[in-house]
Design brief:
The chain is mainly alpha-helical. It contains 21 helices and three strands. Helix 10 packs antiparallel against helix 11. The chain is elongated. The chain starts with 5 loop residues before the first helix and ends in an 8-residue tail after the last helix.
């Protein structure tokens, strides 16, 4: 496809699509092409006749039945040239262009290919050939998603929620189409065994729906179930305050969501004892929920002890476990990213460096204010001690020693 003459280039495209055709079919196809491009006496040359150019292109398009035979370079070159003529002959967001693009997407996605990478390239090239605001980008990327999922290669797309949210703001598509696209992502990720990644999009999807719609109610309940079921989801505050979730306060799972945000293990066990059928109907395992509730209760307890020693006995009492299990649960809560601290088996204490609050309301703000004031007072004391040491002509070591004496800090020697 080295020619620069438009008619010759379109003929080369046509010949590429007919490589495997019997000779008589190829000759008939080429004759149809010549009938279109041949300029009769007194008629406009084809270079000036857009209608005939479009008919010639559509002949190529209608004969495209797959990605074709040839090297990856030939296949990619064929489709790049095809896109170039498509967007030159019709406006990008015209109904004709959309019809042709949808046709190509079906051909490409259904085409058998041992090398899926060439499909990604020609689909990505089509995506990048359209303006950022084009409505065509939605069906193109949906096809890329479907091809990747069919080949178990979703990770190759490096799907990013920030990219998806940015695209949805750019694309000139309806709110319904945006919601459906998000639903497609959720379904694809779920079906390919990535429920944690799907959960990120459940929140966005729920937000995209009118709060009073039946779809919104379904999405809200599905998101609550996913949040409860997934072992890595601990932030219930953001979910609890969604308009769509607030609208399902009458749902049987709402009290359980409330418990996971506000209460502890006793409240959960009491609810679970009387709602075993509800847990079964939503395939929520009680043992898994108990495990998550203990981690959340541990995190809430740790938040009250930030900067202090938390006794093993208090942890065991709150989690309703034996004192010998405290180390195990501490490791679990740290691995979950809910708490940071240092265990001391000799003193049977956990020194808490930091911990997550399940919600951040007036009580949590007041606790934070107290800690900041204490930190400010401590820092002022350090500055004062250092300043006094410097006035006496002492060095940095003297100032540090004075600070330690002032605060009663004991420093253990190192071997």
């Amino acid at each position: 496809m080295s020619s620069t003459d438009p008619v010759s280039q379109i003929q080369e495209l046509l010949q590429y699509t007919a490589r495997s055709n019997p000779e008589d079919e190829l000759n008939a196809l080429l004759q149809s092409f010549r009938d279109i491009v041949t300029t009769e006496e007194g008629a406009r040359p084809i270079e000036e006749d857009e209608d005939r150019q479009r008919r010639a292109f559509e002949l190529v398009l209608n004969n495209t039945r797959g990605v074709g035979e040839g090297s990856d370079l030939e296949i990619e070159g064929f489709f790049n040239l095809l896109y170039s003529y498509l967007f030159a002959l019709w406006q990008v967001d015209s109904s004709e262009t959309r019809q042709h693009v949808i046709f190509l997407l079906g051909i490409i996605s259904a085409s058998p290919s041992d090398n899926s990478s060439v499909k990604y390239r020609i689909l990505s090239n089509l995506f990048n050939s359209t303006p950022p605001s084009s409505a065509l980008r939605l069906p193109i990327y949906t096809t890329i998603l479907q091809v990747a999922a069919a080949n178990s290669e979703l990770e190759l797309l490096a799907l990013s929620k920030s990219d998806i949210e940015r695209w949805l703001k750019e694309w000139e598509v309806s709110d319904e189409e945006k919601s459906q696209f998000l639903k497609t992502i959720i379904d694809t990720l779920t079906q390919t065994g990535q429920p944690e990644s799907a959960y990120e999009y459940r929140i966005v999807y729920t937000l995209s729906l009118p709060p009073s719609s039946p779809e919104s109610r379904t999405a809200a309940v599905d998101t609550i179930v996913a949040a409860l079921r997934l072992p890595t989801v601990f932030d219930f505050d953001a979910l609890y305050n969604l308009d769509a979730v607030i609208a399902v306060k009458d749902h049987e799972l709402w009290p359980l969501l409330h418990i996971f945000l506000n209460n502890g293990l006793p409240e959960f066990c009491a609810w679970a004892d009387s709602h075993a059928a509800v847990l079964d109907s939503y395939q929520l395992g009680r043992l898994q929920l108990e495990h998550k509730m203990r981690l959340l209760a541990f995190s809430s307890l740790g938040f009250d002890y930030i900067g202090r020693d938390l006794p093993y006995s208090t942890i065991a009492s709150t989690l309703q476990i034996d004192a010998s299990e405290v180390d195990k649960w501490t490791i679990d809560v740290i691995r979950a990213g809910l708490l940071t601290g240092k265990l001391s088996q000799s003193t049977q204490n956990l020194h808490v460096y930091g911990s997550s609050a399940r919600k951040f309301e007036r009580e949590q703000w007041e606790a934070l204010e107290k800690r900041l004031l204490a930190w400010k007072a401590g820092l002022a004391s350090v500055i004062e001690v250092v300043a006094n040491a410097q006035k006496r002509g002492g060095g940095v070591v003297d100032a540090v020693q004075a600070t330690q004496n002032e605060q009663g800090v004991q420093v253990e020697g190192t071997a």
